[in-house]
Specification:
Elements lengths: L13 E2 L7 E2 L7 E8 L4 H13 L9 E7 L2 H6 L9 E5 L4 H5 L4 E5 L5 E5 L4 H8 L18 E3 L5 H14 L2 E2 L2 E5 L2 E5 L5 E2 L1 E4 L3 H23 L5 E3 L2 E6 L5 E5 L12 E6 L5 E3 L2 E2 L7 E2 L6 E5 L4 E3 L2 E9 L2 E3 L1 H9 L9
Parallel strand pairs: 3-4, 4-5
Antiparallel strand pairs: 1-2, 3-6, 6-7, 8-21, 9-13, 10-11, 12-16, 13-15, 14-24, 15-23, 16-22, 17-21, 17-23, 17-24, 18-23, 19-20, 19-22
Length: 348
């Protein structure tokens, strides 16, 4: 296994924590993340490092700017409570197979930058020096030494105002259905609901003529811009979906990526076309790995971005936000989608 060096992207892992059976590293982007790869806290040198860490961690970690994951490969650490935890500043990750610890190169402290690349590493016996460096880190948005805009494309004037209003009317006629999100469970992609993670209502456009009108505008006005910006030729569109985020319901969608399950692996670009950008407050898009800048396309305009980017829809604080939300991909990705149909389960 290749040794991780500063500047290298740190591979994602999924492992249990006490609050989430599938805690995923890739969901933590946008913060400095300290990984404590411990092996077993039964070892005296590990116990000493943990005591040193616990004594100084709360002066440095806040769970928002900097957080820590303490990774144990010893099941007895969990049953005996040998790993200290203080949410949201630091939590234990239970590496039951030892695979995560091996992936990270064995015991030590690893500091990840907000884009989840290795920034620095220390042996466990240098815990005090590590905490001292953490106290001097810049804000996550300035980890590169200057602001980093997200690699997104904003394209105005895709849909005319009349078409935007028609899509809103189509939604209001149905009222929308509670929207879930996709999660990998026992090797299958299933839909789940969690209002702490997402509150949204969706309506699928089924009228063939209206679908054709939407497809034509995306093909003529958006596809060439994606080709220009990303050298990617879009040939496929997934779902004709009008979504509503309502302030009354607390509409939001927490930080996530759109292609992390077998059933969604074919998705290449996410598209958010605002239908009433001037009629709500809050609700903007943000990309935590690239700072706190928010993005709101004008009515009829789109924000387009790779489905691999961590992103969130901030809570709507006033009014109701309507958006058209397709995914785009190509013929090669269509083959992936077809091959992975067998992994789709049922749910939201």
């Amino acid at each position: 296994m290749t040794e991780l060096l500063p500047g290298d992207p740190v591979p994602n892992f999924t492992a249990p924590s006490d609050t989430n059976p599938r805690y995923s590293l890739q969901a933590t982007g946008g913060r400095w993340i300290l990984l404590g790869v411990l092996g077993s806290a039964a070892r005296p040198e590990v116990a000493a490092a943990l005591a040193e860490f616990a004594a100084g961690a709360l002066a440095v970690l806040d769970g928002n700017r900097i957080a820590a994951l303490l990774i144990s490969a010893d099941a007895e650490d969990r049953s005996t409570g040998r790993i200290p935890q203080q949410l949201p500043q630091y939590r234990a990750i239970w590496d039951e197979t030892g695979n995560v610890s091996a992936m990270m190169g064995g015991p030590g402290w690893l500091l990840l930058d907000p884009t989840q690349r290795l920034f620095a590493r220390w042996p466990l016996e240098r815990t005090t020096a590590m905490l001292e460096l953490l106290s001097r880190l810049p804000p996550p948005a300035l980890h590169a030494g200057l602001p980093m805009p997200a690699p997104v494309l904003v394209v105005p004037r895709l849909f005319e105002p009349a078409l935007c209003q028609r899509l809103i009317r189509e939604y209001r006629q149905s009222g929308g259905q509670e929207s879930g999100f996709m999660r990998e469970v026992d090797g299958r992609t299933v839909g789940v609901h969690d209002p702490n993670f997402k509150i949204r209502r969706d309506h699928l456009i089924e009228d063939a003529d209206l679908q054709a009108a939407l497809r034509a505008r995306i093909s003529r006005r958006l596809v060439p811009e994606i080709m220009k910006a990303f050298q990617f030729r879009v040939t496929r569109l997934e779902r004709y979906l009008v979504a509503s985020y309502s302030a009354e319901e607390g509409g939001h969608f927490s930080a996530h990526r759109d292609n992390t399950t077998k059933g969604t692996a074919h998705r290449r670009f996410a598209v958010t076309i605002n239908l009433n950008a001037e009629e709500f407050e809050g609700g903007d898009l943000t990309f935590p790995e690239f700072g706190r800048t928010t993005y709101r396309a004008p009515t009829g305009g789109a924000v387009v971005f790779s489905c691999s980017l961590l992103h969130q829809a901030l809570p709507v604080t006033k009014g109701e936000r309507f958006a058209f939300l397709p995914f785009l991909y190509d013929d090669a990705a269509a083959k992936i989608r077809e091959e992975n149909l067998k992994f789709l389960g049922t749910g939201a």
